[in-house]
Amino acid sequence: MRRLPMASVVFSNKNGKLTMSAKAYVFDAYGTLFDVHSAVSRHSDLVGENPARVSEIWRNKQLEYTWTRSGMDRYVDFWSLTEQALDFALSIVPGSNSDCKKILLDAYMTLDCYPEVPSVLKKLKESGAKTAILSNGSPDMLSAAVNSAGLADLLDHQFSVDEIGVFKTDPSTYAMVTDEYGFQPAEIAFQSSNRWDVAGAVAFGFKCNWINRTGQPDEYLDLGPKRTLNDLNGLF
């Protein structure tokens, strides 16, 4: 595959020291670019007595189902798992309104992006870097979210694991990027808010930034990121 030229992108810390350069900057979608809790927060008055708990369980089950399905080699697309996870969340949280299911699913297709996302992607694109999403999300989900947030022109590629039928952290999911671009893993900067995703990407060989938006404690200490950042602004 034809190799693309090295982008003239470098990042520095507060002391001005160069800390990272890469040929491509690849982002997880859900929790990293898009706020997974924004679907419920938009319609919290319809969800029931404890919308925050519904949103938390919805997200946790969504991820659990991907790991379980991958372990069994029984792939089901991410949109189906998202719907199944919402069914579980609404059924287990007392006082929830199951009639809001369709409204929440529709909202999930157009999740809010985090405020800094457009400007960060714009700076990377203007520098000449490749920018991409690598996500468990199905192609329709990613396309809807990207277009709704106005990010389509800021991304070169939207990699969906649906193309290969297995979820992250299977190494083949990260290989989608290197196979497409012809780069070595160490030439890719990968950003995710999910620590398990960072661990998988580090194991594959990516240079990783953990976007720890909620101040979670570290884990997978043998598979640590290059840097831990509060948000994507920390890339610059």
Write the layout of secondary structure elements.
Elements: E1 10-12, E2 18-21, E3 24-27, H1 38-42, H2 44-47, H3 51-72, H4 78-92, H5 101-108, H6 117-127, E4 130-135, H7 139-148, E5 157-160, H8 171-181, E6 188-192, H9 195-204, E7 207-211, E8 227-229
Helix pairs in contact: 3-4
How would you explain this protein's 3D organization?
- With 236 residues, this protein is of the alpha/beta class.
- Helix content is 41%, strand content 14%.
- Strands 5-4-3-6-7-8 form a 6-stranded parallel beta sheet, sandwiched between helices. Strands 1-2 form a two-stranded antiparallel sheet.
- Strand 1 and strand 2 form a beta hairpin.
- The radius of gyration is 18 Å and the shape is globular.
- The relative contact order is 0.17.
